[in-house]
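Aim 2, interim progress: modelling of the iron/sulfur cluster-bound target.
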Amino acid sequence: MTKLFECKRCGFCCQGESTVSLSSQEQENIARYLGLSLQEFLTRYTIKKDKRVEMKTINGHCIFYDEEKSLCKIHSVKPSACRQWPLHPSILRDPESFEIIRRTCPGFSPQATWKDIVAFLKKSSSPDF
Ligand code: SF4
Ligand code: SF4
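Predicted structure of the complex, ligand included:
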């Protein structure tokens, strides 16, 4: 059977001039992983937008994206929003939400339908890469 989703490691989801919000727990986890104090981590790697704390970007991608290896430098502690992507619960809302996400992610099989993905999500957890 064709896989509904397989990450192509294209890195597209780590590109852009903004990233995802980090919860307090995620900030602490990443700081600990990097061997930094929370304050040091926040200063070096994050930016505040209103009340949200986001990871900084450099060269048009998340500061933790490794361009040479096409992978996340903090994979084991990456934020839950990154861990869920692209099989995010918002896909479940309607076929249009799925199509919007599918257009930005080449990992979906061209044969995969919204119903297939919804059924898959209901019985499994999100993929990891
Ligand atoms: S999740 Fe999709 S967009 Fe992100 S690296 Fe994998 S294939 Fe590319
Ligand atoms: S934390 Fe990792 S997976 Fe998330 S945007 Fe940054 S590089 Fe990509």
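Residues 7-13, 85-86, 105-107, 129 surround iron/sulfur cluster (ligand 1) (CB under 6 Å). The longest helix spans residues 24-34.
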